[in-house]
Amino acid sequence: MPNPLSLEGVMLHLPETPHRPPTPHPDTLRFITLLHRTFDARRRALLQLRDTHPPGELLLETQHIREHNTWTCTDSPPITTTGNSSHVIRLQGLDNASAPTWHTVMHTHAQWADEKGNSCSAPSTLVPRALHTHEQHMTVDGAPVSAALFDFALHFHATHPPRATPHYCIQGLVHHGEARLWHDVLCVAEDVARVPRGSLRVALCLDTPAALWQCEEMLFELRQHCAVVLLPREVPGDTARAQRLHAVRAVCARRCVRVLQFSRELPRDAAPTPAPPPQRENKRAPRPALLQHAGRL
């Protein structure tokens, strides 16, 4: 097995352009490679489990977690908000439904990294792409890297050390084992950064039917990092959904984690009402630590 930090076997599949496209810093590539070689086989195995537990029922094998009344989510500083409301989170991320170009990926991450030095704006919460998606422009040992791990690694490495507690919104989970995977990814990042356990905080987005039924198990796995749970809005006339959302709110109250609502209609780079005022386009040069000219790895 290759050295997890070695760039041997790492390839960037970049578009042909008149100018050399930007690439991540070699240290960032090593961090992405470390996460890929550590977690990709486990990620693929978890994706194969997605159809084994249909949503709409509680899992018997995790009954002991739900019945254990002593654990709660770790206390954390409040999530950074925008506007005058304490119930607003700025979410930023790449669309799962699209296949973004390399320029879009790097430009977007450069903007996120640029927030680190901008003391006038509240840090946003990064929404990595879902676990089942891939970053088509990068392969490690012949396999495409997870877009979720790519987004997380690029953002984390470019914004460290942060000026505020980093927050990430974990979305698209279907099995509680996927929440455990994210917990372990966060722990590796904290170890690399040499910061205490729980320094990285997440918002758990329950945006799949299975997540609503495995909420308590997912909170248990992320209890050292979870700061807030994002719930979908109720659908008028859907009594079963309303009952399940009520049960999830009770779970969150018992496990001492805050609950906010999200709307699928909102673009991910916008905040729920009240929306922040529009900002001018940032035309500053990309951070040299994030964007480098392409060259030999």
Structure explained in plain terms:
There is one protein chain. This protein has one domain (10-52, 61-274): TIM Barrel, CATH 3.20.20.360. Helix content is 33%, strand content 15%. It contains 8 helices and 11 strands. A 4-stranded parallel β-sheet has the order 7-8-9-10, with helices on one face. Strand 9 (226-232), helix 8 (239-254) and strand 10 (258-262) form a beta-alpha-beta unit. The two termini are 19 Å apart. Residues 128-228 form the Malate synthase TIM barrel domain. Its EC number is 2.3.3.9. Residues 267-297 are annotated as: Disordered.
Question: What's the gist of this structure?
Answer:
With 297 residues, the protein is α/β, with parallel strands linked by helices.
List keywords for this structure.
single chain; alpha/beta; TIM Barrel; three-stranded antiparallel sheet; 8 helices; 33% helix; globular
Beta-strand content bin: 15-25%
Radius of gyration: 19 Å
In spatial order, strands of the major sheet run 7-8-9-10
List low-pLDDT spans. 78-88, 265-297
Termini separation (Å)? 19 Å
Give the structural class. alpha/beta
What characteristic shape results from the CA principal axes?
Answer: globular
Total number of domains: 1
